UniProtKB/TrEMBL annotation:
It is a multi-pass membrane protein. It comes from Hymenobacter luteus. Keywords: Membrane, Transmembrane, Transmembrane helix. InterPro entries: AI-2E-like. The keyword rRNA-binding does not apply. Pfam families: AI-2E_transport. The chain crosses the membrane at residues 18-36, 42-61, 73-95, 150-170, 205-227, 233-258, 270-291, 311-336. Belongs to the autoinducer-2 exporter (AI-2E) (TC 2.A.86) family. This is Putative PurR-regulated permease PerM. One of its GO terms (cellular component) is membrane. It is found in: Membrane.
Length: 361
């Protein structure tokens, strides 16, 4: 006869307690993520910067014995001055100029009317152009973190990101140990995920940023040489467009060439096309070859689909996080396949180690 439960006996079985514990953890985690809202980008940005600057931190702190606090503060100052401030300036310049064109569409309409005269088709009007530009401003305001909800919101995001990054460096050992302890993966899987993270950050932050900068400079200089107004502004636009695979900078110098041709400036239009096709487009392939050993090897399809996915979810950080999500998905699919093969081998009495990948450094 089972013992009669006393009033203070827990009514749940051990298995029920275990399931309810998981439910509570998931529920609380969901509430935390919902409460943080748009501030999630600060933690994601800190993680990306940690991967970018960690080789410097390891070299200065672990190899040369410099002060951990001093190096962490120096890296934070470097990130703010070299990365955050220029990016904020470029974002503000881009959106402000689009707002200007959205309020004064006379220049754009003059060009469109000339194209309509050349082609014989009427395909737009001033109201539709104004609406399109206003939608572009709204879209950019949602995607660029520096313009999300004003100066206070931006300041809080940057402060939270730098604060998080500082403690990730100061408590580096416990942070990495916590990842290894609490992530539900084998050590070999953690190595694969770590390699995927490095490859994506190298390819979509370091390598692509350098390529985008070179293409933007070449685009701005080309447009200035051939007499395109606001060449500096369009160079900034080219920097952002260069992150989009396949399309990229042709979205900038292509319309500029068409406009020049529509204005009967054949020499300038053909010149822009020749420089764009021969130089600007091929500089991407040339730099990727030169940087192939240092940037991650990410398939262009993963980058393209990841950018489309990531920007809609994470804003401008989606340029990195989108391809990373797809790469992680592919890695986990491979892990799932390998785990199933391991289970089958174990059932047949064969050793598990035969199917585990070699651990990377």
């Amino acid at each position: 006869m089972p013992p009669t439960p006393t009033p203070d006996t827990n009514i749940y079985t051990p298995r029920q307690q275990y399931v309810l514990l998981i439910v509570c953890l998931v529920g609380i985690s969901t509430l935390i993520l919902i409460g943080l809202g748009s501030y999630i980008t600060a933690f994601l940005g800190a993680g990306i910067l940690f991967v970018v600057f960690r080789p410097w931190f390891v070299g200065l702190v672990h190899r040369r014995g410099w002060s951990r606090q001093l190096v962490a503060v120096g890296l934070l100052v470097f990130a703010f001055v070299v990365i955050i401030l220029p990016f904020m300036a470029l974002s503000l310049m881009l959106v402000d100029r689009i707002r200007f064109y959205g309020q004064d569409t006379s220049q754009i309409m003059a060009v469109l009317h000339k194209i309509e005269q050349k082609t014989g088709y009427t395909f737009t009007n001033e109201q539709s152009v104004r609406t399109l530009l206003q939608q572009a401003v709204s879209w950019l305001s949602q995607r660029l973190p520096s313009l999300a909800s004003g100066l206070l919101h931006f300041t809080v995001i940057i402060g939270l990101m730098l604060f998080t990054l500082y403690f990730m460096f100061i408590q580096e050992a416990s942070f990495l140990r916590g990842l290894r302890r609490y992530l539900p993966f084998r050590p070999s899987t953690l190595h694969e995920l770590g390699d995927s993270l490095k490859n994506n950050v190298n390819a979509n932050v370091l390598g692509q940023a350098l390529i985008a900068l070179v293409q933007a400079i070449l685009t701005g200089v080309t447009l200035r040489i051939f007499g395109v107004p606001d060449s500096t502004f369009w160079g900034v636009v080219a920097f952002f467009m260069a992150f989009i695979p396949v399309l990229g900078t042709p979205l900038v110098w292509g319309p500029a060439a068409i406009i020049k041709l529509a204005q009967n400036q054949t020499t300038q239009g053909v010149g822009i096309l020749l420089v764009g096709v021969i130089v600007i487009m091929n500089i991407d392939n040339l730099l990727r070859i030169l940087l192939a050993r240092r940037i991650g090897d990410i398939h262009p399809l993963i980058t393209l689909a990841g950018v489309v996915l990531g920007v809609n979810i994470f804003g401008i950080l989606g340029l990195v996080l989108g391809p990373l999500l797809l790469s992680y998905f592919i890695v986990l699919i491979k892990v799932f396949e390998r785990e199933n093969r391991i289970r089958q081998r174990l059932r047949s009495g064969k050793p598990e180690q035969d199917l585990l990948p070699p651990a990377s450094g």
